[in-house]
Amino acid sequence: MNVTCDALVGDxxxxxxxxxxxxxxxxxxxxxxxxxxxxxxxQGLSSLTEMEDDEADQLDEAEGLTLDSRLGxxxxxxxxxxxxxxxxxxxxxxxxxxxxxxxx
Length: 104
Known about the structure:
2 helices; 3 strands
């Protein structure tokens, strides 16, 4: 499913997703303490803030990591351009474990 959203410079991908009712998981509440808001940037990577060490460390835990992976909570928009992201599909048998407030 493709969804188009408006965003402002300074917004991060997680906040844009949540404001538009897109199910982008975020167990830590968007504070760069997990990797559940992992997205793959398909277009516009250079129009996002640079990745910092904390984000790179958390991304190491992400399922389906690519060279264009970012954490939605850390990737802030820096220019008024089209940015295309993909939300990786988790293994359905474990996906329920990665939703905010999930119970084991």
